[in-house]
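Supplementary Methods S3. Complex input for the iron/sulfur cluster-bound model.
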Amino acid sequence: MKHVSTLTSATLKQTAAHGGCGECQTSCQSACKTSCTVANQKCEHAK
Amino acid sequence: MIHRYQKNGLNFVLDVNSGAVHVLDDISYAVSGLIDENMADTCPQQIVDELSQYPAEEVREAYDELLELKKAGQLFAEDDYIDVSKYIPVGAPVKALCLHVAHDCNLRCKYCFASTGDFGQGRKIMPPEIAQKAIDFVIARSGKRHNIEVDFFGGEPLMAWDTVVQTVDYARSLEEKFNKKFRFTITTNGLLLDEDKRAYINENMDNVVLSLDGRPSVNDEFRKTVSGTGSYDVIVPKFKALVDARDPQKDYYARGTFTSHNLDFADDVVHIADAGFDRLSVEPVTADPGCGYDLTEADLPKIEAEYDRLTEIMLERRKAGKPFSFFHFMVDLDQGPCVVKRLRGCGAGYEYVAVTPDGDIYPCHQFVGKDEFKQGSVLDQSFDMEIATKFAGMNIYTRPKCQKCWAKFYCSGGCSAANYNMNHDMNDSYDLGCEMERKRLECAIYLKAAEKICAD
Ligand code: SF4
Ligand code: SF4
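Predicted complex, serialized as structure tokens:
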């Protein structure tokens, strides 16, 4: 493409099929506790 | 749903439901502002006319590219592939514990949400027997889940060192029998870190969070010892020794808090990085409105500008070969968690619970001491499933503001406790928190793009 460059293509939909196993780290979105925020988490299966 | 924004000459279009992120040139960005999910098969003349500053041919070409993306499911994608009802984790296993091993602290930080350590419940250390009962509780409640997280929290957990060590030993002794893997984290203010504890933490804790606010004057304004002196000079060398000896494969974070007294917090971030901590975060304070250092809507323009400034600093540092990672700018665009995980950011009350020194169970550390949320006790292994179900049922589709928010699959619905504290309703998102979150995400995605452009 000439006008658009895609940084990340659509990936969320594919994850709906295999997702939800729950083995990943628990997250906390609060400012008070730096445990883990969702957007930077790894999927346990992607390792 | 899409979200468009510009930053430093780059034009972004995020496709919310598919997770696609596009960087556009000026023409296609202009076109993207004039289209919606009902795109016609050819570029409407109206768009060409409206963008008469660009050659008509180019406008049509840009339109066609956007249409191609739409057809590929990367623009204006629907969310009909998500069946939310299927993903409500009723009766889900508990897989993470926040163990409040010490409701006591040897610092007197002015902004402490735990009322300087005791959560308003009196100073106490958790006896090892209660911690062991908590481990029994999580093993019994974790079902088939293999990975279990335990976070030693407080107060100041180093004040309950025996309990920490005995809990780790106890949990490890059960791993094989129950086919579990425990991962430990400890959050400390550093005062009691001696050589032995340092070595133990580096050996046994998968993650360690080191509390440090930044520049000495900033740190010492809030993080005071019992006698009222600053803590900076005592803790920094101890933190440094810990990090220097730590296996680089293992996580750690230096974590600070900013308040309305240091809205120039990018300087604190840089200070912490220069002090030798390359994984860090400095986060907005959780404070009562009107306390004098809380953050308000009036501070927002300054905070947003500061996040922008921090972004530029980080790019420069990377170019100079001295990069550091800022926790709240980290986003994994490719291999992040599945969409099911993204429906709810936190597991409080159903897969994550906090346990007090007396063995009482609460949905998370932020709810400790709020009677109406007391969920059970590890002493009799009781656990209120009604509260668990209520927490498990909340997600970005049950929160009205989240439904409409472009950031929902990155933010995952924010913090129930913040919503409750600020708005008395766990489903009513705390607006200032949201605005900061959206700003951080824009910065984070910009950093990813800049990184990629530099690499190409
Ligand atoms: S930023 Fe706010 S509204 Fe948006 S998803 Fe997060 S909590 Fe919900
Ligand atoms: S309610 Fe808030 S503080 Fe508690 S675990 Fe969830 S995100 Fe974290």
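The first strand of chain A starts at residue 4 and ends at 8. The interface with chain B takes residues 1-13, 15-16, 18-20, 22-35, 37-44, 46 of chain A (CB under 8 Å).
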